[in-house]
Amino acid sequence: MSHHMMNSSMLPTTHPEHHHSTASSGGGHGSGMMMMAMTFHFSYENVPLLFSGLTINTPGEMAGAFVAVFFLAMFYEGLKIARECLLRKSQVSIRYNSMPVPGPNGTILMETHKTVGQQMLSFPHLLQTVLHIIQVVVSYFLMLIFMTYNGYLCIAVAAGAGMGYFFFSWKKAVVVDITEHCH
Fold first, then answer.
1. β-strand partners of 48
2. CA 94, 136, 71: angle at the middle one, nearest 5?
């Protein structure tokens, strides 16, 4: 299929045999629905932000939204690190299990495993659950903001996440998996 056919098939068509009022509450073309751009753009007029009543229309509103989204992305990175720290502090039971394993030249070595557990019905687990819910909601908000394809807001998400990682993850010992791109 050629690009001409694909682009023209996406345009709204009118059918003279169907007469619909534009004041109807249906899902037709005249129902007042906003079309979102599906390519990156740098605009500050009529930019929807998460909720129907929250629309950016001025450069000042875009600047404010940029700052708010930047700090939301920083908060998300900080929340991830805070949850890891809380999890390390709340580990309640530590067990060491030693078992013999065959070694070189017929020798037997003792291998020790550390098992860390946590109780399901405990305050630390409840706190982790609530923080996980908040983290998931914030991550979906950031995803939806990025999906506006507004360049300013996309830069705010990426820069805020980077700055949050810089500030909160500096003392975290981690093995970096360069193939992992999803949080």
1. 55
2. 105
Spell out the SS3 assignment of the chain.
Answer: CCHHHHHHHCCCCCCCCCCCCCCCCCCCCCCCCCCCCCCCECCCCCEEECEEEEEECCHHHHHHHHHHHHHHHHHHHHHHHHHHHHHHHCCCEEEEEEEEEECHHHCEEEEEEEEEECCCCCHHHHHHHHHHHHHHHHHHHHHHHHCCCEHHHHHHHHHHHHHHHHHHCCCCCCCCCCCCCCC
Question: Scanning the structure block, which residue is given the tokens 């007469």?
Answer: 19
If one compares 134 and 177, the residue with the highest pLDDT of the two is 134
pLDDT of residue 45: 86
Distances (CA, A) of 125 to 93, 152, 156: 14, 38, 32
Residues 6+ apart with CB under 8 A from 43: 37, 150
Q: What pTM did the predictor assign?
A: 0.61
């249906």: which residue's tokens?
Answer: 26
